[in-house]
Amino acid sequence: MTQQLQLAELVAACRWLGAKGWAPATGGNMSVRQDTQWCWLSESGKDKGSLTESDFLQVSIADNTAPSGRTPSAETGLHTLIYRLFPEAQAVLHVHTVNATVLSRLVKGNRLTLQGYEMQKSLRGQSSHLDALQIPVFDNDQDISVLAQRIHSGTSKEDLQWGFLLRGHGLTCWGRNVEEARRHLEGLEFLFECEILRRRLEVL
Ligand SMILES: CSCCC(=O)C(=O)COP(=O)(O)O
Ligand SMILES: [Zn+2]
């Protein structure tokens, strides 16, 4: 697929998730890989639901620099971490959904376990609701390089195979193409909503 087509798919994904209310205000950031060295990341501070292709900046996967001199997402270091860890990663979506924000605060410890849901199969490699699916949860940090280092050092690649939650902040997920990243986002968001409702009803 050409870079132009991949960016067009990403712009469509941003419109889709923006329309769902998953990137309120200026929350969220999105990217696609160009090759082993470069990715294209949303510019910082924009409304991510109304981005166009010119709002994506070329960024070095190795050192987070942007040759354009414009400012890529404040969370660039989390996107490039995924691209460095997973050569197969082609797209990264970070969103501020209500469900991800709230559920990540309810989780004690550093893992959200989801089990018993058919929709677990929306995630790559999952084939049964019986499996216990683990999504890592990290405490939020305003220093993204510290946060990226903490994620890298405290987690196995397997743990990060779909993405991770930042406590009180949101979800970052990825895919081998934009379509898969969208599916992971939609599947996880559905699972988070179910889990919040299940926990709420359980305490009634
Ligand atoms: C009100 S959004 C706070 C920053 C954030 O978490 C985010 O996802 C957006 O940051 P960016 O620099 O990518 O616009
Ligand atoms: Zn964010």
From TrEMBL:
Its EC number is 4.2.1.109. One of its GO terms (molecular function) is methylthioribulose 1-phosphate dehydratase activity. One of its GO terms (biological process) is L-methionine salvage from methylthioadenosine. GO terms for cellular component: cytoplasm. Residues 8-196 form the Class II aldolase/adducin N-terminal domain. Pathway: Amino-acid biosynthesis; L-methionine biosynthesis via salvage pathway; L-methionine from S-methyl-5-thio-alpha-D-ribose 1-phosphate: step 2/6. Binds 1 zinc ion per subunit. Keywords: Amino-acid biosynthesis, Lyase, Metal-binding, Methionine biosynthesis, Zinc. Belongs to the aldolase class II family. MtnB subfamily. PANTHER family: METHYLTHIORIBULOSE-1-PHOSPHATE DEHYDRATASE. Catalyzes the dehydration of methylthioribulose-1-phosphate (MTRu-1-P) into 2,3-diketo-5-methylthiopentyl-1-phosphate (DK-MTP-1-P). This is Methylthioribulose-1-phosphate dehydratase. It comes from Mangrovibacter plantisponsor.
